[in-house]
Amino acid sequence: LALAHKAGPQAKVLVDTGHHYVGQNIEQIVAWLLHLGALGGFHFNNRKYADDDLIVGSIDPFELFRIMREIALGDSAGVAFMIDQSHNVEGKIDAMIQSVMNIQTAYAKALLVDEERIAVAQAEGDVLGAHRVLLDAFESDVRPLLTRWRGERGLDADPVEAFRAGGYAQRLTAERGT
Question: Which of 84-114 are b and which e, b meaning 16 or more Cβ less than 10 Å from the residue's Cβ?
Fold first, then answer.
């Protein structure tokens, strides 16, 4: 943020979810940057042992949900959302599609947070109550909602299966002889 301020008024901060310290409260950083109007974008990925090695939300889906909640609450207009991954085991395209699906799922759940109930719990100092409100949304099954949303847009209910059924990866593998 300090470097962005020195670079000028158009410079913003990029949050890379594979580069923060282990245990970092990344959603607090997101909330703070949104509040300051300094969040420029995301490089979404996940990591366990190194950067950019896993599907978004695969290690800590609750963290992704908490990040999406801050995005849902804040002014995220103009914030760029990118996926920055390097797949070494799973297929690159279907893993990327799964990452998009995980982000959509986390965002849909974030939109389900009962803000009125959480505000009451916070005002009463009821930390467990506020946590339970978050869990209610996080544990909601939003797959039917996302299936309907995709259907309304002419998209397949399961984009990973649609990609696999299309045979692109198999054709590419055959063409490369690998």
Answer: bbebeeebeebbbbbbbbbbbbbbbbbeebe
